[in-house]
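Reagents: none. Just compute today. NAD(P)/FAD-dependent oxidoreductase.
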Amino acid sequence: MKERIGVIGGGPAGIIAAGIAGSKDKSVTLIEKNERLGKKLFITGKGRCNITNASPIEDFFDNVITNRNFMYSSFYSFTNKDILNLLEKYGLKTKVERGNRVFPLSDKSSDVIKALEKFLSTHNVDVMLNTKVLDINYANNKFIVITSENKMYFDKILIATGGKSYPSTGSTGDGYKFAEKFGHEIKTLRPSLVPIEINEEWTRILQGLSLKNVTLTAFVRDRKVHEEFGEMVFTHYGISGPIVLSMSNHLHQYTNKKIKLFVDLKPALSIEKLDDRLLRDFQIYNNRQIKNGLNDLLLQKLIPVIINLARIDSEKPINQITREERGNLVNIIKGLPMTFKNFRSIEEAIITSGGISAKEINPSTMESKLQQRLFFAGEIIDVDALTGGYNLQIAYSTGYLAGMNM
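Predicted 3D structure written out:
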């Protein structure tokens, strides 16, 4: 009689684990509370699915923020090339974009999920959708999984229910409750890769404005603690976008201190070159008011905010702007100042930081050190990384090891 394997959670970690276990001639049941598999996968990469990153696998460790050493066996056992080869085998073509981000050639996350479903079907995985797990017990060397419909018995079990971010996709933290029942410590859950709330009211004026090729720098007590270059967007509460989400991962340790953020709107220009550029523009628009003389340099929506922060009357003619006022403009453009207020809630975060203590899981097998034949994979573990496909690779790689060792 085949060994019975139960996988709870139909995200990327659960899918890979279930398919791999099925390929080893196990009887595998994948239980998913949603009406379809990969619901969170479906919305990643703005609906395009940033599958993984094409950088060398050794570079992945620099992008893991929490417990990177835990990932050595996982990353090297199932690499970014391995997941792409698997997806290609089941019909998915991919492409590499800026930052080595890998996307489906079709730009449709649904095509990634279709390939993964074929993978499961090929290995005879029994998929149960719309099935919520209410409880897990252990007796007589069997795991008893109690769902809204019935009881099921398994020889081994994997919990891959994700974190608490994006609860609309089913990530409501169920797995933490199950893990605690078996004695596992849950490290404090925090939002990771999350937008930032700002104290300054003027950010609301800029709501919806996107900035490209800017530098965002964080200071704590006049010491630079992190810097990001790329795209960001202003919101009604503060700031978001790729560089803000990445920045958030580096600021958790400083939230009990005053954090100042500065946006360099023209990082390609030194202060001297920006001042020269302003002088040239001022000569061209010499008789205009300052509010009408910066259109060649700045986005229209930014101009009144910049002028106000530089303490210049917006009606003042350019030919009356003093050297000091011009210097104020340069300083604001090179360092638009903001004060950190808070992170947005964990429900708005891309990833959950925290979770099941990595010290209580065997990094070579993903098996619990506290309960034999109980495994974990994916976001439920206290491991998280920066944007760029790294978090999904964590899910595939840990799922693979769990599948192999179940």
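The chain has two domains: 4-190+353-405, 195-344.
Action item: order primers for follow-up constructs.
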